[in-house]
């Protein structure tokens, strides 16, 4: 039985089912249209289906809303959702808006919106959960919250004033970076930039890594140099290098000067390599240990929560120093092998003798062939003095092979490209098509470009 009143923020992430109980996707937003006298009417839901594609589900196709799930008739138009001029998204656009209370008590900010069933298959905005400004002088705490009817408020937007994005960010706080990036890309441009501006540096860095390069440049262009440098510091060095390579020489060098020296050094090294080489693809922060380190030490390092799975699949063993470029590279120890030996076993005795490293100038096509031929998750990269400088992981290669617009492609095209990738990684080196990331091989700091 449908719930008489549902708060929209609680709907985000709820699973959508067809009548047979098969999962169709997850709710990402609710779409309403304003009416002259009556409360806004709900016209449908924005639902994310497999493939991270967002589609529109008409409210007339919804048979039940409640208990953390949505039941539909099962008939869904899988065309990508495109917002019409008359439509408003509750999560993306209404939350954070300021309203004036009709009782004369002043302004408040919308923190949640309740929708109510007004008739069979018809829903409209009912109550609003709003927060009033703080009344005390204390810098701690927030203002009081109240429930009000839509008829008891009127929206107030001053010319040139942007609505706060903080409530939207809080609603999406549990989203994975890739999902949040996809959500931001679906927002109107101005709203996307507002949300990006209010995201914490590390969260924004994670989101930028999942966006197309032109959108990365667009967002970074709205940030002042100090904030932009902080975000670049929080990004993976290879992603930061790709982004800086898209900027003008002047701004790229300015941002590198503002970054933390260690982070900037990693990025500068990556910018020296051609994009279609192992040096241009690699991640310069692998796990590095000495031959005398134990299995226990190796496993402790790969357990770190922030470590990407591909990087945690193996430990690199080198002579000192243990920061890239290291001493002579000795080999890799795969984590599965570490699991088969006692904690006190030395890593030097577990090195995979069959795996040879690639050099920084090894073509990307050859790196791809090696990963595919030997079923590897990563391959070490050394310089011409056999010093370890990084590793190329499978996700680095996939990101390089896929087209620039892969994040926004429709599922049918995505399936075709996935098939193409599968064919690519099993083809001989000479026939592997590689996408070139333009502008990567630039050397900042000496005034020259390649």
From TrEMBL:
InterPro entries: CBS_dom, CBS_dom_sf, Mg_transptr_MgtE_intracell_dom, MgtE_N_sf, MgtE_transporter, PRC-brl_dom, PRC_barrel-like_sf, SH3_actinomycetes. GO terms for molecular function: magnesium ion transmembrane transporter activity. Gene3D superfamilies: CBS-domain, MgtE N-terminal domain-like. Residues 282-350, 351-409 form the CBS domain. It comes from the Bacteria. One of its GO terms (cellular component) is membrane. SUPFAM superfamilies: CBS-domain pair, MgtE N-terminal domain-like, PRC-barrel domain. Keywords: CBS domain. This is Magnesium transporter. It comes from Naasia lichenicola.
């Amino acid at each position: 039985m449908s719930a008489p009143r549902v708060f929209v923020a609680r709907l985000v992430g709820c699973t959508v089912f067809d009548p047979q109980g098969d999962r169709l996707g997850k709710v990402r937003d609710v779409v309403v249209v304003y009416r002259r006298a009556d409360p806004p009417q709900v016209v449908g839901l924005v639902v994310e289906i497999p493939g991270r594609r967002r589609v529109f589900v008409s409210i007339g196709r919804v048979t039940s809303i409640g208990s953390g799930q949505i039941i539909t008739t099962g008939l869904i138009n899988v065309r990508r959702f495109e917002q019409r001029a008359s439509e408003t998204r509750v999560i993306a656009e209404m939350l954070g808006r300021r309203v004036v209370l009709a009782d004369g008590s002043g302004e408040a900010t919308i923190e949640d919106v309740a929708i109510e069933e007004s008739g069979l298959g018809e829903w409209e905005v009912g109550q609003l959960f709003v927060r009033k400004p703080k009344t005390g002088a204390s810098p701690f705490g927030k203002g009081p919250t109240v429930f009000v009817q839509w008829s008891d408020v009127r929206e107030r937007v001053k010319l040139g004033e942007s609505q706060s994005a903080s409530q939207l960010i809080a609603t999406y706080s549990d989203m994975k970076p890739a999902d949040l990036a996809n959500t931001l890309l679906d927002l109107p441009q101005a709203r996307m930039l507002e949300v990006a501006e209010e995201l914490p540096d590390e969260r924004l860095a994670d989101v930028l890594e999942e966006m197309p390069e032109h959108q990365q440049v667009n967002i970074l262009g709205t940030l002042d140099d100090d904030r932009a440098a902080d975000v670049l510091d929080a990004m993976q060095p290879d992603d930061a290098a790709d982004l800086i390579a898209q900027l003008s020489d002047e701004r790229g060098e300015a941002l590198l000067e503002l970054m933390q020296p260690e982070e900037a050094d990693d990025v500068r090294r990556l910018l020296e390599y051609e994009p279609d080489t192992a040096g241009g693809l690699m991640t310069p922060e692998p796990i590095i240990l000495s031959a005398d380190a134990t299995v226990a030490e190796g496993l402790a390092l790969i357990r770190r929560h922030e470590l990407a799975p591909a990087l945690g699949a193996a430990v690199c063993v080198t002579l000192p120093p243990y920061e890239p470029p290291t001493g002579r590279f000795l080999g890799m120890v795969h984590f599965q092998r570490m699991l088969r030996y006692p904690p006190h076993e030395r890593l030097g005795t577990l090195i995979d003798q069959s795996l040879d490293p690639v050099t920084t100038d090894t073509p990307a096509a050859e790196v791809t062939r090696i990963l595919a031929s030997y079923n590897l998750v990563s391959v070490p990269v050394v310089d011409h003095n056999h010093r370890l400088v990084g590793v190329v992981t499978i996700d680095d290669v996939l990101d390089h092979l896929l087209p620039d617009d892969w994040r926004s492609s429709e599922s049918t095209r995505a399936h075709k490209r996935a098939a193409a990738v599968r064919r690519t990684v099993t083809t001989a080196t000479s026939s592997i098509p590689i996408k070139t990331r333009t502008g990567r091989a630039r050397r900042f700091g000496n005034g020259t470009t390649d």
